[in-house]
């Protein structure tokens, strides 16, 4: 290292001239530049590029995982929405059938009640007719008795 410094100081003393001096310092500077580039590449650029590559791979993996999870979530959402729609359709069908059954039961109950009312009316009408006939028979019998009594009184006189 000391030899290098000595050479550099001698080279600077010998040529003090132009803008570009082509002496021993030029190859030395080129070697120094290449050595510094190699050292920087080993110390800084490779670790930084490894970290950047790892980070890029992590981000890529995270994006892939996230997109896969998003696709799976969308599929599950679609499946659940389909199941919900199917359940709603089935519920509507059940409600409609229950309403039809209820209407059928109500109409049957109304029909039975009307039939019972008609039967009661017929029974009441029949009973009234029987009572009417009995009343007429008893009136006829009374009329016959009264007419017989009147005739007897008229004949006795």
TrEMBL record:
Pfam families xref list: ATP-synt_B
Location(s) in or outside the cell: Cell membrane; Membrane
Record-linked CDD domains: ATP-synt_Fo_b
Main location (coarse class): membrane
Membrane topology: Single-pass membrane protein
Residue ranges the record marks as coiled coil: 70-156
Cellular component, GO annotation: plasma membrane; proton-transporting ATP synthase complex
SUPFAM superfamilies: F1F0 ATP synthase subunit B, membrane domain (SSF81573)
TM region positions: 24-45
Single GO molecular function: proton-transporting ATP synthase activity, rotational mechanism
UniProt-listed Gene3D superfamilies: F1F0 ATP synthase subunit B, membrane domain
Keyword annotations: ATP synthesis, Cell membrane, CF(0), Coiled coil, Hydrogen ion transport, Ion transport, Membrane, Plastid, Transmembrane, Transmembrane helix, Transport
Record family assignment: Belongs to the ATPase B chain family.
Summary of subunit composition and partner proteins: F-type ATPases have 2 components, F(1) - the catalytic core - and F(0) - the membrane proton channel. F(1) has five subunits: alpha(3), beta(3), gamma(1), delta(1), epsilon(1). F(0) has four main subunits: a(1), b(1), b'(1) and c(10-14). The alpha and beta chains form an alternating ring which encloses part of the gamma chain. F(1) is attached to F(0) by a central stalk formed by the gamma and epsilon chains, while a peripheral stalk is formed by the delta, b and b' chains.
Free-text function comment from the UniProt entry: F(1)F(0) ATP synthase produces ATP from ADP in the presence of a proton or sodium gradient. F-type ATPases consist of two structural domains, F(1) containing the extramembraneous catalytic core and F(0) containing the membrane proton channel, linked together by a central stalk and a peripheral stalk. During catalysis, ATP synthesis in the catalytic domain of F(1) is coupled via a rotary mechanism of the central stalk subunits to proton translocation.
Name listed for the protein in its UniProt record: ATP synthase CF0 subunit II
Gene name, Swiss-Prot/TrEMBL: atpg
């Amino acid at each position: 290292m000391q030899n290098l410094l000595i050479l550099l100081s001698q080279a600077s003393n010998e040529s003090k001239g132009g803008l570009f001096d082509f002496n021993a310092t030029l190859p030395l500077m080129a070697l120094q530049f290449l050595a510094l580039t190699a050292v920087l590449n080993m110390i800084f650029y490779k670790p930084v590029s490894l970290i950047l590559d790892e980070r890029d791979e992590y981000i890529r993996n995270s994006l892939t995982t996230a997109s896969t999870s998003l696709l799976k979530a969308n599929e599950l959402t679609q499946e659940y929405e389909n199941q919900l729609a199917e359940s709603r359709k089935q519920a509507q069908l059940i409600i409609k059938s229950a309403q039809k059954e209820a209407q059928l039961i109500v109409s049957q109950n109304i029909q039975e009640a009307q039939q019972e009312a008609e039967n009661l009316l017929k029974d009441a009408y029949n009973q009234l007719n029987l009572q009417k006939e009995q009343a007429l028979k008893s009136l006829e019998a009374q009329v016959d008795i009264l007419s017989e009594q009147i005739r007897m009184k008229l004949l006795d006189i």
